[in-house]
Amino acid sequence: MTHTRNTAASPAEPNRSDTSRAARSPPVDERSERALSESMTVRPLPDRRYVVDTDGGTYVVDLDAGSCTCPDHAIRGARCKHLRRVALSVTAGVVPAPDERVGACAVCGTATFVPADDRGSHLCDRHAFDPGTVVGDRETGKRLVVTAVTTDRADAYRTDADRSLADYESNAAYGAHEPAVEAVYVESLRPETALTDLKTYAFPASRLTASVD
Questions:
Q1: Which domains does the chain have, with CATH numbers?
Q2: What is the pTM of this model?
């Protein structure tokens, strides 16, 4: 049963290889080099700031304010290596951004970064679906097209029948804490019909699979 809801060389004689290498890799200043090479541990704090542990001490970095409690920043006003290391860590996905927190995928429990103020249900990259993805229903084998991935838990998502998605017997094998994924059946697609005009169905995330024959 399915459940509905609408919703850098010499100037005299340039060395070709050196010139080429410089063009590919812009010069790195000392602080950036140290930010990349020195041992540091970056840990997020609940107030959008970060603790940076180094051999020389422990400092607090605020990316939003562009500040750090180290002497290099406090006395010289420099964009210190600690600030740079935190920015690099965020860009690399090692720590969450200031507006994110560490959450857990509702399907597999893998740690994933989610919006800091959103306490809803979330999925990791492995289990997430993009709108437009063709998926299969594990229960019926039918194919659907994903229209939206909500952050509503299956036990909180209400269908058109004003029932919780988790209440349906066909969803008993799937987590009530999983986010509801909305989709339309492929068989209902028509060239003249907009996707938004089709009846939308909802499923607990793990009921759908992106592996479609």
A1: 31-91 (no CATH), 120-209 (2.170.260)
A2: 0.71
